[in-house]
Specification:
The complex is a heterodimer.
Chain A (H helix, E strand, L loop, with lengths): L2 H11 L5 E5 L4 E3 L8 E6 L2 E7 L2 E8 L4 E3 L1 H6 L6 E4 L3 E6 L1 H8 L3 H26 L3 H11 L1 H6 L2 H7 L4 H9 L1
Antiparallel strand pairs in A: 1-8, 2-7, 3-6, 3-8, 4-5, 4-7
Chain B lengths: L2 E2 H22 L4 H5 L9 H25 L7 E2 L3 H10 L23 H20 L9 E3 L7 E3 H28 L5
Antiparallel strand pairs in B: 1-2, 3-4
The chains are: A alpha+beta, B mainly alpha.
Chain lengths: ~180, ~190
């Protein structure tokens, strides 16, 4: 079984979510500079995480229905984080505070194990992502991401995919056509 | 008033997030609604935003320079003073809002406005977020800024932020109210 969905099922069963937040398209769940230690479950819609560097936005990750999303840096170190989290369409998320989440994780060895495998998966994904960014050919970058997450191309507008792939929207549509 | 500096900055970031979300919602309204006003001398939603942009045009460069040139070490506590509290209270939003006089140069009445007005406001909010972030490393009491309405008064940076951000919140809410009324009037949009 997938550790993330196991984890989510358990949190659902124990009714640990603190509240639900509804975001309209383009609204922000988090902005640069805030300390956001919550973990969010996306119930519907999609979100993106990005940073702004000298007026240019760099898209870092996307979140879809049934994904967990967090500003993981703030979650871990409780310090301000540069990340923005923005809704790409109308999005509903459930929220759990770090405190509640940690006490849930620590309540059983099984939960601890689940969390560890979620984090391990995340490290593997980050390594793939690092390889993406170091791939110099735009076409190869596109192919890698298409193979890994075809869902991305179903759900996310082109301009954000282009930003994620570090290319202009024009280059992306040229590559898609060829 | 005294407040932990970290808490003050986090509160101001949170209000700015809400202001940004308010502006993103306004962008989805029709231009007719955005330009509609309850009375000839009242402001439309876009005029509210334009009013904020004019203040932003003064305060954002002023705060940027003062942060860059500040040499005071940060302090755990922001103390404020009576003047800062007075100004930030007087511009902030509350339910039984009193009408205030606007300085002529800041009055946007009858300006030509369009969606670019909102884009400019959104851009200014990203700049304010960056400035709040940079302010972690300087002293919000000892760093002073000029204010737009008098050459003789200086405000503490923490208070300047409060004035600008509470003022943004006030007029975003006013703009939202104008939109609600315009929809109530069943405009042909």
């Amino acid at each position: 079984m997938n550790p993330i969905s196991d984890l989510i099922d358990k949190i659902n069963n124990q009714k640990l979510w603190d509240r639900e937040i509804v975001l309209e398209r383009n609204e922000y769940l988090k902005v640069k500079g805030t300390i956001d230690t919550n973990i969010y479950l996306i119930k519907s819609g999609s979100l993106r995480i990005f940073v702004i560097d000298e007026y240019e936005e760099h898209t870092i990750r996307f979140g879809y229905k049934n994904n967990l999303i967090a500003s993981l840096d703030s979650f871990l170190n409780e310090q301000p984080s540069d990340f923005y989290i923005q809704a790409l369409k109308k999005t509903n998320v459930n929220v759990i505070s770090k405190k509640k989440y940690i006490s849930f994780i620590e309540s059983s060895p099984e939960n601890k194990e689940l969390w560890l495998s979620v984090l391990e998966n995340f490290v593997l994904q980050q390594m793939e992502r690092e390889r993406d960014i170091l791939t110099s050919s735009p076409v190869e970058r596109y192919k890698r991401v298409l193979k890994r997450s075809p869902q991305l191309f179903q759900e996310i507008p082109n301009k954000y995919i282009a930003s994620y792939l570090r290319m202009t929207p024009e280059t992306l549509s040229r590559i898609k056509k060829s | 008033m005294a407040i932990a500096t970290k808490k003050l900055l986090q509160d101001l970031l949170e209000i700015t997030r809400a202001n940004l979300n308010g502006a993103e919602q306004l962008k989805k309204e029709s231009i007719t609604s955005l330009n509609w006003k309850p009375a000839a001398e009242s402001w439309s939603a876009l005029e509210c935003i334009e009013h904020l942009n004019r203040y932003g045009d003064f305060y954002i460069p002023e705060i940027t320079v003062k942060i860059q040139t500040s040499t005071h070490k940060p302090s755990e506590i922001f103390k404020s003073n009576w003047l800062g509290t007075y100004f930030s209270k007087s511009v902030s939003y509350n339910e039984n809002i009193k009408k205030m006089k606007t300085f002529p140069s800041m009055n946007p009445l009858h300006s030509e406005l369009d969606l670019q007005t909102i884009d400019k406001f959104i851009d200014q909010q990203h700049q304010i977020l960056a400035l709040l972030d940079q302010s972690k490393d300087i002293n919000l009491d000892k760093t002073k800024t000029a204010i737009s309405i008098s050459r003789f008064i200086k405000l503490r940076l923490g208070d300047t932020f409060r004035v600008v951000i509470y003022h943004n919140q006030r007029h975003i809410k006013q703009a939202e109210k104008a939109i609600k009324m315009s929809i109530g009037k069943k405009l042909h949009v």
